[in-house]
Amino acid sequence: MAVKKVALACTVCGSRNYTISENNQRTERLEVKKFCKHCGKHTLHKETR
């Protein structure tokens, strides 16, 4: 069985820069500050499904 992946999207520009494995135990969407190569700075990234 393959591992399902979800993307982390930048809240500023909307680009999907990172992928993580899906976790069914997480009830809320993940929000992390990551570096966005399109914005050139650290921004908030939210989990997309």
TrEMBL record:
<keyword id="KW-0689">Ribosomal protein</keyword>
<keyword id="KW-0687">Ribonucleoprotein</keyword>
<dbReference type="InterPro" id="IPR011332">
    <property type="entry name" value="Ribosomal_zn-bd"/>
</dbReference>
<dbReference type="InterPro" id="IPR038584">
    <property type="entry name" value="Ribosomal_bL33_sf"/>
</dbReference>
<protein>
    <recommendedName>
        <fullName>Large ribosomal subunit protein bL33</fullName>
    </recommendedName>
</protein>
<comment type="similarity">
    <text>Belongs to the bacterial ribosomal protein bL33 family.</text>
</comment>
<dbReference type="InterPro" id="IPR001705">
    <property type="entry name" value="Ribosomal_bL33"/>
</dbReference>
<dbReference type="GO" id="GO:0005840">
    <property type="term" value="C:ribosome"/>
</dbReference>
<dbReference type="Pfam" id="PF00471">
    <property type="entry name" value="Ribosomal_L33"/>
</dbReference>
